[in-house]
Amino acid sequence: MPDYVTAAPGINLNSPYRLFQQVALTWDVVEHGLKRGDLATIVEHHPTEDREDGYSLEVFDALGETIAVITLPASALQPLSANDILHVRSFTAA
What we know:
The structure is a single chain. A five-stranded antiparallel sheet has the order 4-3-2-1-5, with no helix packed on it. The protein is globular, with a radius of gyration of 14 Å. A hairpin with a 5-residue loop joins strand 3 (54-60) and strand 4 (66-73). The chain is mainly beta. The protein has no helices and five strands.
């Protein structure tokens, strides 16, 4: 079983994502210059009991430098699959 991010007792940990898993964004994050399809790495899980879980994500450039650390709901993330093709685009900070 994969290692999931830990949380406070009593919180549901049925997260579909793992700590340090790479995911794709499903929407633009304009204030950070990020676009749908950009890759991010999960660095923290914010589980809730009464609404959609959130995730803190770190976004890197192609050389491994951090571009942004953001928090988004689970619906803004998409797991990567074997059918996905990675693409390079130039980044312009917002």
